[in-house]
Amino acid sequence: MSVTNSSTENGPAGNSSTGSAPGGSASAPQGRTRGVALLFPGQGAQQPGMAAGLYRADEAFAARIDEVLALWGAQGRAIRRDWLSATPDVPLDDLRRAQPLLFAVDWALGRIVLDRGLRPDALLGHSVGEVAAAVLAGVLSLADAAALMADRVRHLATAPPGGMLAVAASPEEVAPLLGADVVVGAVNGPRQVVVAGADGPLAAAEARLRAAGLVCRRARTVSAFHSPVVAAAAVRCLPALRATVLRPPALPLFSGYTAAPLTGRQATDPGFWATQPAAPVLFGPALDALLATGPLLLVEAGPAQGLTMLAKRHRAVSSGASAAVALLPARPAGGDAEPAAVREVYRRLAEEGRLQEPSSAVGASAASLDPAARS
């Protein structure tokens, strides 16, 4: 759950097309070489129309999205219709849409950057973003990941209803106020947590948190991800995972669940992947571990710039040693805004000496694999 409080209690989330802001310098400090790490957001980052402008404008991105959606057959076509529609049959915040679309958009954005010749020094995903990162790292194939996502969504849809709440506080501050049935589902930063639980207990916990003077914001989900509410449903994914080929990562893959580089043993453990929807996300500590490796250009491959904003608050970025940019604007945008955001990130990667191919072709009109579906 890559929810931040940036739009309410910690200042604006940013609205530039590239995610640039104070604390995220555009090029490496003189005489130093920065690595590149890709960040992949998860549940809560979804937005109506996210990446739709890029999908309609850019052939490379559209082809990668279509590649994912085709693996889901008729359901993939329904997902695309709802994604591109102003009046979807299934709301985007429903896990049956949010989860597969976030996976598809995250993976496709990461893939087009790798297709340009980037070999990232590390990958880090938040929640379902870790699955997209795992595919790019070679832990599992795209086809297997798509099948596992469909299986995961099918089981999680049977879990009791619930929700998540972003709170501007530390885990220690919120713990006494949560009650027995609400847990800390994500630690995104020093005072950035997300709590989760069934609807009734979560509402009661929210009242106590607000009464204590803590700023809270409901996350965009109707499910209590990263809590015991979804644990039984998540474990039902084990049979499919045991039948799937899992490999050690071929690229450094930092896990938001262990806050450390994923080991070969962890990556090939079906139980590790099965429990992820119910396990707490430790994105903040994972980002600490990632930035401790040295100066990095962090590139968010996904919607909403939530991870970019979290990164820009990190001391390694605010000091100028590292920087954070995003491949999509903070909010969906039409026209050339989304292709322009991608071109700007390519320009920055070229400045870092990591891309050689010109970026002028991004957003060029081209024939679609499925022209009618993209309108």
What topology emerges from the helices and strands here?
Layout: E1 35-40, H1 52-57, H2 59-71, H3 73-84, H4 95-115, E2 122-125, H5 129-136, H6 142-156, E3 162-167, H7 171-178, E4 182-189, E5 192-198, H8 199-211, E6 216-218, H9 231-235, H10 238-242, E7 253-255, E8 260-261, H11 264-267, H12 270-274, H13 283-291, E9 296-300, H14 306-312, H15 315-318, E10 323-326, H16 337-351
Parallel strand pairs: 1-2, 1-9, 2-7, 9-10
Antiparallel strand pairs: 3-5, 3-6, 4-5, 7-8
Helix pairs in contact: 2-3, 2-4, 3-4, 4-5, 4-6
Strand order of the largest sheet: 8-7-2-1-9-10
Unreliable stretches: 2-26, 365-372
Report on the biggest sheet. 6 strands, mixed
List the total number of helices: 16
What portion of the residues fall into strands of 2 or more residues? 5-15%
Order of helices and strands: EHHHHEHHEHEEHEHHEEHHHEHHEH
Q: Give the number of DSSP strands.
A: 10
